[in-house]
Amino acid sequence: MAQVDLEVNGRAYRMLCEDGQEGRLRELAAYVDGRLRHLTGGGKSGSDAQMLLMTCLVMADELQELLTGRGVVPVSVVEQAEVVAGLDRVTKRIEEVAVRLERA
Q1: CA torsion, points 72, 77, 81, 87, in degrees to nearest 10?
Q2: CA angle, 12 then 18 then 14, to 5°
Q3: Please, what is the Cα angle at 101 between 96 and 103, to 5 degrees?
Q4: Do 43 and 86 belong to one domain?
Q5: Are 19 and 1 in contact (CB under 8 A)?
Q6: Distance (Å, rounded) from C-alpha 39 to C-alpha 32?
Q7: Chain segment 10-20, per-residue pLDDT in tens
Q8: Which of 78, 83, 86, 104 is the most exposed place for a label (fewest CB within 10 A)?
């Protein structure tokens, strides 16, 4: 078992995980920390336990909506723009390959 040090809402936590999963655990902790800061506006709006519980409830609600096909987890405008740009690149590449295939 590996140990990994995480930080959520300015507090340090040491967690155990399977060997090789340290990076993924850090990514998940960073995601939870970001969601918590977004939901609380970056300030204290209760005890750490209350803020973490609120964050978990919001994330569980989003997951439930995704699992039942009722909603989509919101993404930022920057993330949306990155997805659109990526899709445009893939579309152009597919069109280039199609042109080459037509010539062959």
Answers
A1: 0
A2: 10
A3: 100
A4: no
A5: yes
A6: 10
A7: 889 999 989 99
A8: 104
pTM of the prediction? 0.60
**C-beta neighbour count of 52 within 10 angstroms:** 16
79 plus 59 within the same structural domain = no
User: Is there a contact between 11 and 50 (Cβ–Cβ < 8 Å)?
Assistant: no
Q: Average of pLDDT values for 63-91?
A: 71
Q: What is the DSSP annotation of the chain?
A: -EEEEEEETTEEEEEEE-TT-HHHHHHHHHHHHHHHHHHHTTS--S-HHHHHHHHHHHHHHHHHHHHTTS------HHHHHHHHHHHHHHHHHHHHHHHHHHH-
